[in-house]
Amino acid sequence: MTASPVLVTGGTGTLGRLVVPRLQDAGCDVRVLSRHRHDGGDGIEHVTGDLSTGEGVDAAVQGTEVIVHCAGTTKGDEVKARHLVRAASRSGARHLVYISVVGADRVPVASAVDRAMFGYFAAKRAAEQVVAGSGLPWTTLRATQFHDLTLLTVRQLAKLPVIPVPSGWRFQPVDTGEVATRLVDLALASPAGLVPDIAGPRVYELSALVRSYLQARGRHRPILPVPTPGRAARAFRAGANLAPDRAVGHRTWEEFLTAKVRSPA
Length: 265
Description:
The chain is α/β, with parallel strands linked by helices. It starts with 5 loop residues before the first strand and ends in a 5-residue tail after the last helix. It has helices at 16-25, 57-61, 77-91, 112-132, 147-158, 176-187, 206-217, 231-237, 253-260; strands at 6-9, 30-34, 45-48, 66-69, 95-101, 138-143, 163-166, 170-171, 193-194, 204-205, 223-226. The strands form 3 sheets. It has a 7-stranded parallel sheet with strand order 3-2-1-4-5-6-9, with helices on both faces. It has a two-stranded parallel sheet with strand order 7-11. It has one domain (6-260): Rossmann fold. 38% of the residues lie in helices and 17% in strands. It is built from 9 helices and 11 strands.
């Protein structure tokens, strides 16, 4: 537990909104940085700032010692990380915790095709390097794709009359809450650099994930395997986004789907 508030960037997002209550349960005061104003009353200090421009970030980090950086998108993560570490360095933060993605260092993103399909991995890798080179004490955790984001993907695919599924793509989805718990444990411990990955308990073909969703909805759609070009896609088919030796998550995709999918999307 820390005496100063723990700053969570992206504290209203998919992961951050689960990190915040876990920090509170651990006895921490929590400050959340977001681009939009939020009303108080939940025991959380909300501050407004924009990591893309740096506006308001100095004020957000002031007086904090531990920062959990959950804010991220498909592009611009390097810029956001740079604004955050500069402000954190000026404020004297003693621990920056960053969430990245398994495969950030193994999925090559070089061509235009790679960038269009796998830019997320490049963005995460660039932000990792900013954090590691910041001079701040840091911890980075790489996770496989969250169940929630996997569900978002298969829901979008399932809307099509014929579902194109990239051939050979596999995923190892992990429970977002389990990742949040691990991040909080890391935030309240000493800086540890790059720590072991966290991954879900099973590996699935993307086509199997889609079929399970369709079955849960009582739907039938033809699935069309499609080839994917580029070096990044080749690495993806080889399992660069997987961590079978770190299948430490417990909640399976089937358990998540049963709990979440209750009515037609």
